[in-house]
Specification:
AlgH-like; single chain; VC0467-like; UPF0301 protein NMP03_05195; alpha+beta; 10 strands; 18% helix
Length: 186
């Protein structure tokens, strides 16, 4: 992976004491980050009481075998907007490759493909996203709040949502129990 100052294709892990309860133990899959801003999809929490089957039925799509799959809390921005993060073995209209690590799709064609068994082999569905304006995330990265890591893509598909925060730190060689709730200054 090229060394750039941008975080596209990496994971942001909320530090203890981030100061915003919406991001407590958050894990954000960074889908876009450049000098104009950033967009990421939360993968560290699911929306209680909502399944993929519920979402599919809203689009009059028969859920098939995926009806019980969880829907993730993607972030506080546009919580009615859906996203699918998935393996690169499927691409549809407006699918975006994310640094060769996963694909971001936000149109109903990916939901239809998942429901009928012709979609990507690995996927997760989220509502909402986390967004940052020009320079905002860069500023947040200089303060105590976020830890970025390339992480393993298995974090997206193999770890349960509630285990991803600890797994992300563990993959980076950090025991999250030892993290301070605030940063010091010298």
């Amino acid at each position: 992976m090229d060394e750039t100052p941008y975080l596209t294709g990496q994971f942001l892990l909320a530090m203890p004491g981030i100061g915003d309860p919406r991001f407590d133990r958050a894990v954000i899959a960074m889908c876009s980050h450049d000098d104009e801003g950033a967009l990421g999809v939360g993968i560290g929490a699911v929306i209680d009481g909502l399944t993929l089957g519920d979402v599919l039925r809203q689009f009059e799509i028969e859920p098939g075998i995926v009806g019980d799959a969880p829907v993730h809390f993607g972030g506080p921005v546009e919580p009615q907007r859906g996203f699918v993060l998935h393996s690169n073995d499927w691409g549809g209209q407006d699918s975006i490759d994310v640094a060769g690590r996963w694909v971001l799709s936000g149109t109903v064609d990916v939901l239809r493909a998942i429901a009928d068994g012709t979609g990507p082999s690995q996927w997760l569905v989220a509502l909402g996203y986390a967004g940052w304006s020009e320079g905002q995330l860069d500023g947040e990265m200089t303060r105590h709040g976020w830890f970025n890591t390339p992480g393993d893509v298995s974090l997206l598909y193999d770890a349960p949502a509630e285990a991803r925060w600890e797994a992300g730190f563990s993959q980076a060689g950090i025991d999250p129990r030892l993290l301070a709730r605030s940063a010091g200054s010298a």
